[in-house]
Amino acid sequence: MTPDDVSNTRKVVSIDHLVYVVPDLLKAIEKTGVRPAMGGRHLTLGTHNAFISMGEGRYLELFAPDPEAEVPLQKLIGVDGPKPRLSTYCCDAGRIGLDYLVDHKFTSLLSDPDMVDVLPTEVEAGSRTNAKDGSTISWRIAVEKHAVPSEELPMGGLLPFYIDWGVCRNVRPATTAPTGCVLKTLRAIHPQADKLKSMVGKLNVGLQDLLDIQQGPEPKLVAIIDTPKGTIELS
Questions:
Q1: Cis bond before residue 191 (omega within 30° of 0)
Q2: Which helix (H) or strand (E) covers residue 111, if one does?
Q3: CA–CA separation, 114 vs 194, rounded Å?
Q4: CA angle (191 as vertex; 12, 218 as ends), nearest 5
Q5: Which strand (E) or helix (H) includes residue 194?
Q6: Contact in structure between 46 and 66 (CB atoms under 8 Å)
Q7: What pairs with residue 3 in β-bridges?
């Protein structure tokens, strides 16, 4: 995709996954009526995860401290904060490319005082061992603004981090995890709803089409999901 293509495309990013942090992965796996696929251990983070597909290239990540970890629990995407809760979400930058998104689209916004502290400026590689077959799944990610204590997540976790699955796109959790759930609405509630709407608009990556932004007393992410148990709210 060229820069001209990008400027003419309103919907540049899509929701890749929602992060549902839980205290105990094994106790959380029956939440939706679909038994998740175990992901794997993140040996440098002190965490492990499991996945449920939510259709249309999206999935729910259950993210928890690893009781067998040999390293301290890292402060990342809200796992160090209150649990269970929907802490934040990730957008797939694969359509535009993560490097272009970070190095060009976001760099142009760094002089904006509202944006400078919430936009990622680094792209790093990540990987995990697949619990099912021992293979390695890799990705590239822009997450440093979410590698902070839970209470410091950008706009309370209501602004995303970004991922590009690269060569592993066809084996990413959205395509391989158990099905049966469908994300209907992602609601972002914030006491500064107008500011959040303005920030989302400044990103100009189509995020305004993905979020239902509402006024509320405290930052809160709410997912409305159709499941075999009926429609549920995760927050």
A1: no
A2: none
A3: 12
A4: 100
A5: helix 193-203
A6: yes
A7: none
Record the pTM: 0.92
Using alpha carbons, list the distances in angstroms from residue 99 to 14, 140, 208.
16, 10, 22
What is the distance between the alpha carbons of residues 184 and 232, in angstroms, rounded to a whole number? 10
The mean pLDDT value of the chain amounts to: 91
Q: How many CB atoms lie within 10 A of CB 36?
A: 24
Report cis status (omega within 30 of 0) of the bond before 84: yes
The residue to which tokens 């066809």 are assigned: 170
The owner of tokens 């005082």 is: 113
The CB density around residue 197, as the number of other CB atoms within 10 Å, is 16
pLDDT single digits (tens) 116-126: 999 999 999 98
* Number of Cβ atoms within 10 Å of the Cβ of 26: 13
Residue type, 169: R
Q: Report how far residue 178's alpha carbon sits from residue 30's, in angstroms, rounded to the nearest whole number.
A: 12
The string of pLDDT tens digits covering residues 107-157 is: 999 999 999 999 999 999 988 777 678 788 899 999 999 999 999 999 999
Could you give the CA distance from residue 40 to residue 138 in angstroms, rounded to a whole number?
Answer: 12
- DSSP annotation of 149 reads -
Longest dimension (CA), the chain: 49
Q: Which residue has the tokens 């400044």?
A: 202
Token pair 């690893």 is found at 66
Q: Are 159 and 149 in contact (CB under 8 A)?
A: no
Asked if 11 and 94 touch (Cβ cutoff 8 Å), the reply is no
